[in-house]
Amino acid sequence: MKPAERETGAAILAAAAELFAERGYAGTTTRALAERAGVNEVTVFRRFKNKQGVLAALAVAVNDASAGQAVAAAPDPEDTEATLRALARQEVRQTVEFGAMALRLALDARSDAEVAAVVGIGPQQTFSGLVAYLDERQHAGDLRADVDPRVMAEAFFAMTSSFVFSRQVLADATRYELSIDEASGPLFELFWNGVTAAVVPRGGDGS
User: Fold this and answer.
1) Are residues 50 and 88 in the same domain?
2) pLDDT surpasses 50 at 107
3) Looking at the structure, do residues 86 and 147 belong to the same domain, yes or no?
4) What are phi and psi of 196, to 5 degrees?
5) 113: domain range?
6) 204 lies in some domain
7) Cα 37 from Cα 25, distance rounded (Å)
8) What is the pLDDT of the chain when averaged over all its residues?
9) Cα separation of 79 and 111, whole Å?
10) pLDDT band for position 206 (50/70/90)?
11) pLDDT at 183
């Protein structure tokens, strides 16, 4: 694919992310997508065939960058703290960029079969991917063995994506001295300290 074609595709997906968040899937037309992206409507059809094709491509891009999927590409998965810290930063960044759209589409999927067919399993795959990694690191002795990895995964997403959602909801009512980026570091420390409490480092004597 030529650079110009990649740029056009990226512009259409960016426009789709904005419009799906603003209007929902049913309320977004291919004409509106084209206008927001600055291209002809026929270009949308040539590149993605139809609106569901745009949604499918956008869902792949978002899912591939989610924490549960990205863990497979971690430089050193055995470095549990560094991997989870990197995934937390990525999940926060992604939620800032795509969170509103993802939340709107998750609601749309409950009543729109076309949306459900594309994005319905994405959140579950993301969650399951992270649970599998946490379970693996539990068995390696890096994380507490007395906490279900599914609970750890829920805590992770509460600290990342749900944290971003709460900031967005409260933005008009509350002034924060710390930005999302500034707050995400201490939040990770709280999570990490919780999932490693009483864990003896490998090679340590516990003293």
Assistant:
1) no
2) yes
3) yes
4) -115, 5
5) 65-195
6) no
7) 16
8) 87
9) 42
10) very low
11) 85
Q: What whole-number percentage of the chain has pLDDT above 90?
A: 50
Positive/negative CA dihedral, 121, 163, 70, 1? positive
Do the Cβ atoms of 55 and 150 come closer than 8 Å? no
> Is pLDDT at 13 greater than 60 in this prediction?
yes
Residues 51 and 82 in one domain: no
Q: Distance between CA atoms of 88 and 91, rounded to whole angstroms? A: 5
Instruction: Write the secondary structure of the chain as one string of H (helix), E (strand) and C (coil).
Output: CCHHHHHHHHHHHHHHHHHHHHHCCCCCCHHHHHHHHCCCHHHHHHHHCCHHHHHHHHHHHHHHCCHHHHHHHCCCCCCHHHHHHHHHHHHHHHHHHHHHHHHHHHHHCCCCHHHHHHHCCHHHHHHHHHHHHHHHHHHCCCCCCCCCHHHHHHHHHHHCHHHHHHHHHHCCCCCCCCCHHHHHHHHHHHHHHHHCCCCCCCCCCCC
Q: What is the pLDDT of residues 172-200, one digit of tens each?
A: 555 667 788 888 889 999 999 999 998 87
Asked if 12 and 33 count as a contact pair (C-beta separation under 8 A), the reply is yes
Question: What is the predicted pLDDT for the residue at 137?
Answer: 96
How many residues can be counted in the chain? 207
Give the global pTM. 0.79
Phi-psi region of 48 (alpha: psi -120 to 50; beta: other; left: phi over 0): alpha
Type of residue at 18 = E
User: What is the C-alpha separation between 95 and 164, in angstroms, rounded?
Assistant: 7
Question: What's the structural domain count of the chain?
Answer: 2
35 and 86 within one domain: no
